[in-house]
Design goal:
The complex is a heterodimer of chains A (about 325) and B (about 290).
Chain A (H helix, E strand, L loop, with lengths): L3 H14 L1 H32 L3 H16 L6 H19 L9 H12 L3 H10 L4 H6 L2 H5 L5 H35 L7 E4 L2 E3 L2 E3 L4 E4 H29 L3 H21 L17 H5 L10 H25 L5
Antiparallel strand pairs in A: 1-4, 2-3
Helix pairs in contact in A: 1-9, 2-9, 3-4, 5-9, 5-10, 6-9, 6-10, 6-11, 9-10, 10-11, 10-13
Chain B lengths: L1 H38 L16 H6 L10 E7 L1 H4 L8 H12 L4 E8 L5 H7 L3 H9 L2 E5 L2 H5 L3 H4 L6 H25 L4 E5 L9 H23 L4 E4 L2 H5 L2 H4 L9 H18 L8
Classes of the chains: A mainly alpha (about 325), B alpha/beta (about 290).
């Protein structure tokens, strides 16, 4: 055990020296202003139409969705989503709370909600995918493994470092998003109430468990769920990087899986067993806001178990392969 | 180079490890809290659907009514006609009427179009209990209402359906529906006693279908009569007649679904709405 800390420390230093880590922050710093600008434009547009009255705007959104329910051209799946949406928005109106009050905190919440499925995992992959395969490409793995340290300890130190940086990336994504969008929308909004606890039963929303939480707490819960997703994605990418020799291949494999996930969530409602795939279970924050799950029968407990099983299985595979396989040639 | 690495290493390590441990703890807490909150949620009894909110406390908590600045705030509620279905330009009579009033020099804002395709009187009655709908009506001072056609004509399905309505079935639906219209108007008035309310009368879309012309005309006339009787009892409520507009111009004013008006048809209705508004409050807020 005594050898672990220096190893982690060593890995951390290596990670910090990597340019790829900074690319993550640069990507965030470039993309967030773009979304902020788009959001600002659409807010301006709505202000012109509804005189800045969010209640009128929200009621119009409800009515427009109600109209699409009657249309034969709208797929049944969309109708389910919209029925749930209508009921939630009516709840907000009835309690006189603006769900989209424009401020930096709300923007951050919305941005992260949309980022969890693809964007955040992508950032995580940037550091996870070459953790082992990268050392093989450069040949430095030999230096590591010829030292008198057990192989599993080497791998374990890499894993711990990875999770440390996952935490840092998730937190910094929040901070960067809040700081940049706040400059436009204002830094207020932490105390704003957000409703959670909507239970979707069929297309009906059970309101008995709904309660308001302050937005800062909501953000914290959301961050926790996003962190869990990120850790699982990191572990999976980590496994792929153990199994595959080249970093490029490792990134492509993970990318393909993730993109398949976003496509599946949009269209696989009729394919029931797709719910056991990890990439369909990434949208954990949706359980917080009470959206309709992509496949019937999914809930937070289910998704957590599916993700955990995938995570644990990947860990087992990673360690077995790394300790048993002849890596040095 | 080597020296530099050695020098900066402890500093980097200390910062990164502290930050990451703190971040992980924070996120773990959030994760745990989220699980607790989603899987074992505690409903707040203080919240809830405040559907039928006629209590004075509720009304008091509402934002104050808009200032009387002479601005026309229009809102429309009701069925597909209110929505503007069939209008190629998607304006419907509310935006067209708004534009006409604007041309006359009024300051007009069309607040909301709350028309829902296929809406019937019953559904509209329960809609009027929704907070958002009430709010919209409270904010406007010129409310347009279009309802009843779906109750009487089953949304135009009669044309494709097997059994066209007979004079009897049409007449049978009349008393119930007109009673609900009365309730609707009463409720709208209750929600906003100061607004001018214009009810858009029905026309007979089946005037050129031989076996439907006579019973259709009869029931539409009876309906409009019933509506007029209700509207006459209240001030600030008017009927916008459309029956005569469409009677001999169905080909001209109906859209391809042969039930809803087309752009020209909506324009005709809008002209009448604009006239009705003037008749009520001549030149108020007008810059002409």
């Amino acid at each position: 055990m005594s050898k672990i800390m220096p190893l982690i420390r060593n890995e951390t230093i290596k990670m910090v020296k990597k340019k790829r880590l900074y690319i993550i922050f640069i990507v965030l710093a470039v993309l967030v202003p773009m979304f902020t600008y788009a959001q600002m434009k659409s807010a301006e547009n709505n202000r012109d139409k509804f005189g800045g009255d969010w209640r009128l705007e929200l009621q119009q959104a409800i009515t427009d969705n109600q109209n699409s329910l009657g249309s034969d051209r709208v797929p049944e799946e969309y109708k389910k989503y919209r029925t749930v949406y209508i009921q939630q928005m009516q709840y907000y109106l009835e309690n006189d709370v603006n769900p989209e009050e424009p401020n930096g905190v709300t923007f951050t919440r919305e941005f992260m909600n949309n980022a969890v499925g693809l964007f955040i995992p992508l950032l995580i992959m940037a550091i996870a995918s070459d953790l082992v395969s990268g050392e093989r490409t450069t040949g430095t793995i030999k230096m590591l493994l010829t030292r008198p340290v057990k192989r599993w300890k080497v791998l374990f130190s890499k894993l711990v470092t990875l999770i440390m940086f996952v935490s840092i990336i998730v937190v910094s994504a929040y901070i960067i998003c809040y700081v940049i969008s706040g400059a436009v929308f204002g830094y207020k909004g932490f105390g704003m109430p957000i409703f959670t606890g909507f239970k979707v039963v069929g297309t009906d929303v059970d309101l008995s468990a709904v309660h308001a939480v302050d937005q800062w707490l909501y953000l914290l819960m959301q961050a926790g769920l996003i962190w869990f997703v990120s850790v699982i994605v990191a572990i999976l990418a980590f496994m792929v990087s153990v199994l595959v020799r080249s970093t490029a291949a490792s990134i492509v494999i993970m990318m393909a899986a993730l993109i398949a996930g976003t496509i599946l969530t949009n269209m696989a409602a009729s394919w029931q067993s797709a719910k056991y795939l990890f990439m369909v279970n990434l949208e954990l924050p949706d359980y917080l806001s009470g959206g309709l799950p992509p496949i019937e029968g999914m809930n937070l407990g289910f998704s957590l178990i599916v993700l955990s099983v995938w995570g644990i299985a990947s860990l087992i595979v990673s360690f077995l392969v790394f300790t048993k396989r002849d890596i040095l040639n | 180079m080597k020296r530099k690495t050695l020098d900066s290493a402890p500093w980097i390590w200390r910062t990164i490890s502290t930050v990451s441990v703190l971040a992980t703890l924070l996120l773990l807490f959030g994760f745990g809290y989220a699980i607790k909150d989603v899987i074992f949620p505690e409903g707040d009894p203080a919240l809830g659907t405040r559907q039928s909110s006629n209590t004075p406390a509720d009304e008091a908590s509402k934002p104050a009514a808009p200032v009387e600045d002479g601005k026309i705030r229009m809102a429309v509620i009701g069925d597909s006609l209110a929505r503007g279905t069939g209008d190629d330009e998607g304006l419907g009579f509310v935006r067209r009427a708004g534009n006409l009033l604007k041309e006359q020099g009024y300051d007009v804002q069309v607040l909301n179009n709350l028309g829902v395709n296929g809406l019937r009187t019953e559904a509209l009655l329960s809609k009027l209990d929704e907070q958002g709908v009430r709010y919209v009506l409270q904010q406007s001072n010129f409310i347009l209402l279009s309802i009843g056609a779906n109750d009487l004509f089953q949304g135009g399905q009669v044309l494709q359906g097997e059994d066209p309505p007979t004079a009897e079935t049409l007449a049978a639906a009349l008393p119930e529906t007109s009673k609900r219209l009365q309730e609707i108007l009463k409720k709208v008035k209750e929600i906003n006693p100061d607004a001018q309310i214009a009810y858009i009368g029905l026309y007979n879309p089946f005037g050129d279908v031989k076996e439907l012309e006579v019973p259709g005309n009869a029931v539409v006339a009876a309906w409009n009569d019933a509506a007029l009787q209700i509207l006459n009892q209240e001030d600030k409520m008017t009927l916008v007649p459309t029956f005569d507009l469409f009677e001999n111009h169905l080909g001209e004013y109906l859209s391809s679904d042969h039930f809803h008006p087309n752009g020209a048809g909506y324009e005709e209705i809008a002209v009448r709405i604009a006239q009705e508004y003037q008749a009520e409050t001549p030149a108020e807020g007008s810059t002409n």
